[in-house]
Amino acid sequence: VPAAMLSFMSMPHNEVEVCHLAPPQLARNISLADEKEVSHMYAIIVTGGKQYKVSEGDVLKVEKLDVEPGATVTFDQVVAISDNELKVAGDVKGASVTATVVAQGKHRKVIVYKYKRKTGYHKKNGHRQAYTQVKIEKINA
C-alpha cells in the first residue's frame, strides 16, 4: 500500500469537516393540466435541394437565391406542417412559408487540397459557398 494512501487512511476523525448544508429541495409535482398548453408551430420546407425545419421568427441561411435584401420570398415546397399534430403529403397542399431576405453572403473558406503520392502532384483550391440569410415571417397552412 503506498505511503500517501496510509496517511489518508490514518487521518483522525476530528480533522474531517462536517457539511452543515440544508438537504436538497425536491421539485414540486407539476400537473400538465394546470399549465397552459403552448403550441409551437413549425414547417419543413425544401429549398436548394435541402430540407429545413422552420418556425416563425427563425433566421437561417439557405442556398443562394437571386433576390435583393429586404425582398419577400415565398417557399411553396412544404413537406410537413405541425401545429399540435403533424400534417404531411396531401394535407399540406397549398401551404407556403413567407420569409424576408436579410442578407446575401459567403460562408467561411473551405480548403480543397488534392495530392497524389510519388508524382509531385499537389493542388490547393479554396471555395466559399454563397448563401442567402432569410427570416421566417409567416407559415401559411
Describe the protein.
It is a single chain. This protein has 141 residues and is mainly beta. The protein has 1 helix and 10 strands; from the N terminus they run αββββββββββ. The chain has a 4-stranded antiparallel sheet with strand order 2-1-5-6, with no helix packed on it. The mean pLDDT is 83.
Give unreliable regions as ranges: none
Structural class: mainly beta
Could you tell me the mean pLDDT? 83
H-E order: HEEEEEEEEEE
**Can you count the beta strands?**
10
Largest sheet data: 4 strands, antiparallel
- The count of helical stretches stands at 1
Radius of gyration: 29 Å
Shape: flat
Topology summary:
Elements (H helix, E strand, L loop, with lengths): L2 H7 L32 E6 L2 E5 L4 E5 L8 E4 L2 E5 L3 E3 L7 E11 L3 E7 L4 E7 L2 E11 L1
Antiparallel strand pairs: 1-2, 1-5, 3-10, 4-7, 5-6, 7-10, 8-9
In a few lines, what is going on in this structure?
With 141 residues, this protein is mostly beta strands. Helix content is 5%, strand content 45%. A hairpin with a 2-residue loop joins strand 1 (42-47) and strand 2.
Give keywords.
single chain; mainly beta; four-stranded antiparallel beta sheet; 1 helix; 141 residues; 5% helix
